[in-house]
């Protein structure tokens, strides 16, 4: 490798590593490098490379630089104990970075007052590299040349004992309990590595289903170990007994970290490395339906509409593969060829879709992971097939990642499963399965459940319909599908897995049905119905630009729910009078790092421009629940839907919220935007946001006030709408969450999907209560949840006193046409009757009787 220069990741006083007040770093146990006592609060990348891992406590991260050097950047001394407090990660594992990219931001006051020292280390942790040319004992600027790294894999070959050579001579294994508070973070990992490196043979640490090379600090940190974990030390080669004893003893004694009282009791024994669950042992969906076999599957209505199309399967269930192979001489080249095919496919996808290049690049990095290949080759060496070996290794790693508390890791697990499928497809000689960003036109995608982030990348027009085996009717993926106008049925059950790729199907989002291989006359009738519907829609669209008044002249405003910049022009064409809910989190789902204030500002301004002077209600980030953000590590929660969501996240991460508020305040013209806050339960939460808004407004020197509204989606908020109305300028009811919380039915749960109906009289009574409460202060009440897009709900909501509906753009023209035919008096009468029923079904019958054509 040619030498590479690492730039200073921080500005501050540069110092030799030996002066660091931490013996493990000072003695070079972690690696060779230098330190900086920082004067800035942002850690930046010292080189071009890839993020190998960001520690779950966000105080450290490792990068792989060109040539293979692994660089650990560790902020402060004893900062792991802050458990992430005061640190904000701006990158995630697998992300490519350039020199100077922001990696981690930190609160200098908080970290400085709580940690032993802010002195931060930059060290090269893998074998075979040396550093020189260190700039030390003076002030250094961020980005200035800090040290040079020499060496590389070839040089390493001379220093690391080849594993195969060490194998003869025995093997040994011991298990010990990790009794230190923060698991194997940099310092204890370095102590373990130092002991392992003294042994010429292999040393591996196993924890739960995962394993790591004990000679790699990065691999050990990546195990994600925590207090109480049982670690198995396994060594091979002469002297294996001795080294496992030494390392187990070190683990027992805490590897230099203080032992935690009461953690002595060993946790249950580590599970042995498990073979993949044989598919036969899983609840089997049954064999694929035969070609041409006519089948009707029933699910739950999610997005109305019908479509005819061809099935593209996106199930994650494990493929059956033969275990026995034809020997390493055949299987190893097969695997290598398949990996090359998939790698080439990823490069091609990155070229065709440059906007998603980072995702494909991250997949390539995963494919390149030597542990994956080594794991699979080890199985092949014992006679397994390449398919079995790859599946087993990929699954073990994916399961291990999924089990980590960090939600970003769980996302890497999904990536690995995706790669597992792609490589298996390549091994079977089939073309790699298509991603959603890559669909042929007229596709009807069948999947267990589709993620919002997958839909965010779908080009318009290709996706004709969606059928999900699981999922609920108001999940965020469904909301995106509705915005795309894609008929969707959820909760079809596992029978959906039996539908073969390429089958002709009719998806009926009006009835919640999927017809597999229907007779020709049904296909023809559906095509005719779809065409007739398109004609009606065109008629409604012609009048869409006119304002919406009921038959008696009552004015009802119809706004659009938007989730991406490109939704806005279409919404105007459909007749939207503004945007009543901009789900800002959707703008940033596909990203690897938090959007800067400037980026947000640009996106909001573009949407405001596209709305051509119409009002724009911007909802502050509503992450958590079924919308985790990879770059915002929230703690793993037992029940995230009842935990850190909406405003709770904003108040916990005030800088995130303030940046968003500033971005909104900068949009011109000043009166165009309103701010809406999700998941409000008490007036004090809205008051806290108002204080932030006022402070940021003052800091920006903006004189004009901005309207601040509360979403009513927590039942308590509906009940005390009269109190919330005192501090809110407007209220907007989120019927999706309100229904989920009132009925105690998870909006993503297929088992309750058919009963999760916003027209339940319990929900309607709360809506009435919210409207009555808001009236005390003369506040308007909008509905921006899914009920606003439901033609059966619209008359009832209007009858209950709602004057603004914010719907998915695809239905706006039709909704306006429908409302023009309604009379307020009738709506009130039917709504009153609906409040006095027992069920949503009864309410739907009342509506159908009152307005038979709905
Ligand atoms: C709602 O809950 O109804 C709502 C509009 O918010 P979201 O669907 O984004 O949670
Ligand atoms: Mg909501």
Domain count, please report it.
5
Q: How much strand?
A: 15-25%
Task: Summarize the main sheet.
Answer: 8 strands, antiparallel
**How many H/I helices?**
29
Please bin the fraction of helical residues: 25-40%
Q: Using only CA atoms, what is the Rg? A: 29 Å
Name given to the CATH architecture of the largest domain: Alpha-Beta Barrel
Q: What molecules are bound to this protein? A: phosphoenolpyruvate, magnesium ion
- Low-pLDDT runs of 5+ residues are 154-167, 264-283
Number of strands: 34
The structural class is alpha/beta
CATH superfamily placement of the largest domain: Phosphoenolpyruvate-binding domains
What does the average pLDDT come to?
86
The side-by-side strand order for the widest beta sheet comes to 9-5-6-7-11-3-2-13
Identify the overall geometry. Answer: globular
